């Protein structure tokens, strides 16, 4: 069957009244939670996971698609109205968007963000529907060694790209891999790192790790350095665009989409790079370049489209290869596992109703977001005014609720708090969180593929570099790790003898260069 | 070594923690038995690699810090990086959390949840305690009813067993 036919079947699944309702609830909840300051899409998805626990898989994932896009959109609202990006992907949006809002053009900023996300979401989802079956065809020829190499590449890229410092990214990844080790070894039944605690034998659920690092970690970190001054939320009317705004927006939307989708599909760590590239591209192309830095609408339109397109692109490796390349994708993978489903090439074969229903509901979710968010923007703006003590109390409350709902075990709550403390420490020292979450979920999968590959080769480690695909993937992975190190070494040699004051500054964005 | 020197390098503690965890992983892995049925790769290979990587990265991080590298603390809308750490607030959040854990099975989720919300809100500077308590009770009641009745997630009913 060709993908169009399958997609139409997917629509048939998604358009049932009940599933439409789930999509609507998902979009609304996702936006409402995503709008909350301090909550990025990853945390929104993790916190809302328990809501879907009792649904059947198809409905749950339809709701999930809504939550995913809603959380993303909510994040951009926050960064425009509050100048406080919940996560790095909205950083570029905040740059121009908040300036626009300060000049009284907040409504236009929100409108171009909403419409741009919609356009990008539609195009990117169509591209996903087209590309996924083809990638699945290729992936079906992958053996364990290729999958292992692919995972090594994902590890290398998320550590090198996310956050500013390679060693801190790697530290985060290694901590995640360690958490992933906890529990009974699935092949031999040996308990690893459980230290005699029976409840740890099943391992630490990824949901607990994500909620702990993101939600509880954020609450503890904020508690330690709470800002006492008030917050300047900019009031906003109903979003709209006039003809000239539209004329300035549509090209950046399309360019952002073209940048965002392919870069998001690569195992290269989500939307940080595409939004950054889109911003600098728009700045270069803009006719009124002087407006950049003072609220240029192109600087919102492009990055927002790139952000949404890359968020959709991230689903390509997730669905076709089972490879999460962002923290949010890792949590979605965990959601799949809750239902005993393993995303990857086989899922398209085994469960086409689910996969295509999910893809169809991404179209629907995007449309719903637009309908919902244009009129509701003033309401979301009011959400931003929640007093901070209540906001973080609510976050901790839902974190505890969600984690207890997973297994109904008190030990999980203790683990949650320990991970929260770790998350706060990581925030304090600029250690990115996403590599840890990806390490937790991908570590056990990587180990399984490694052992499978070595079992087939009877212990011969050269099997790992036996095919051109594995060699290529591992080569790129090595490059990802070496480039920042070598680059810094060269820069240090150049800087030697000169004033080194600018060196620290130059090192901070090093991850964005390769 | 004076205090000033140490303060700028608190990150060394993190490096030490990474090294410590690495050691822990290696020691724990060494105690694992490889069952005779496993002919090729046992349960020890992967953890050994992870442990070694942790050790290496911990040392690397330590060297990086000693050479003056430091991670940028996570900025955020509600975070004021110019302030010193407020350990009292952090400890109060912890106290509220563990009170919640202790109460959960005894009083049920509704009361334990309200206590958690109230405790964290007060720890984070909510001045009107009574109002915070009101918000806490209303919120936790609504959440409890929605999750246990509407969504079918089972939460301990505790003292409200059979009532709500």
From TrEMBL, chain A:
Highest rank taxon of the organism: Bacteria
Entry keywords, A to Z: Membrane, Transmembrane, Transmembrane helix
Signal peptide: none
Name of a matching Pfam family: TctA
Residue ranges of every copy of the DUF112 domain listed in the record: 20-438
Transmembrane segments: 20-49, 61-82, 109-132, 138-158, 204-223, 314-336, 356-377, 389-422, 469-490
Protein name: Putative tricarboxylic transport membrane protein
From TrEMBL, chain B:
Spans through the membrane: 12-32, 44-66, 109-126, 133-155
Coiled-coil intervals, chain numbering: none
InterPro entries in the record: DUF1468
Protein name from the UniProt record: Putative tricarboxylic transport membrane protein
Keyword DNA-binding: no
Record domain DUF1468: where: 15-156
Lineage, top ranks: Bacteria, Bacillati, Actinomycetota, Actinomycetes, Actinomycetes incertae sedis
Pfam families associated with the record: TctB (PF07331)
Key words, A-Z: Membrane, Transmembrane, Transmembrane helix
